[in-house]
Specification:
The protein has 190 residues and is mainly alpha-helical. It is built from eight helices and no strands. It is elongated and about 95 Å long.
């Protein structure tokens, strides 16, 4: 049976308690470890600017991990205190990383919000629309028909060729000629 939980434990005794938890899931040994380390971990985390409530949660989570991972403890590699405090520190780092990721995601979401249009944007858009409509009036009926089907109705060239009963090459040629004509008419806008 472990010694009184209020007394200071030697590194060897702490290691034996972890080994007892690992070997036989010794609940009494775990209670002694919990009573010994919970307030120390909480204090350690609070000294690192972790809020008290979170520090207490992390201390409990660290000790739950001690229960689960006691079999991984190796006293030849680290003392009991170092091993347990490393678990607590790693939990805090994980929380900090999650918080940082959340801040980055929030910042990206804020950047992706639609920005209000500049005051002159509506005026520029209506001027652009007026110029494009005027330029479209300068196309031949054949060119206008293929442009309308391709760009306004979103049809594929082969689909247009079938609908208009034209060779595919003719459809492509008319679209190319129409685009060249529009570039000429809208030169400063392209």
């Amino acid at each position: 049976m472990p010694s009184d939980s209020g007394a200071l434990k030697s590194p060897a005794e702490l290691a034996r308690l972890i080994e007892a938890v690992a070997a036989r899931q010794d609940r009494d040994a775990f209670v002694v470890l919990f009573d010994h380390f919970a307030p120390r971990i909480k204090g350690f985390l609070m000294r690192g600017n972790t809020p008290a409530g979170l520090a207490e949660e992390l201390a409990q989570e660290a000790l739950i991990m001690v229960w689960r991972k006691a079999g991984q403890f190796d006293r030849s590699r680290a003392g009991a205190s170092a091993w347990i405090f490393t678990i607590a520190r790693n939990l805090r780092i994980d929380i900090a990383r999650r918080e940082q990721r959340a801040k980055l995601l929030d910042a990206q979401a804020d950047e992706n919000l639609e920005q209000p249009a500049p005051p002159d944007a509506e005026l520029l858009a209506s001027e652009l629309e007026r110029r494009v409509l005027s330029a479209l009036e300068h196309l031949s009926d054949d060119q206008m028909r293929v442009v309308r089907l391709s760009f306004f109705e979103g049809k594929a060239h082969a689909e247009i060729a079938t609908e208009l009963e034209l060779p595919l090459g003719t459809v492509k040629s008319r679209i190319r000629l129409a685009m060249n004509r529009l570039r000429e008419l809208l030169g400063d806008m392209t």
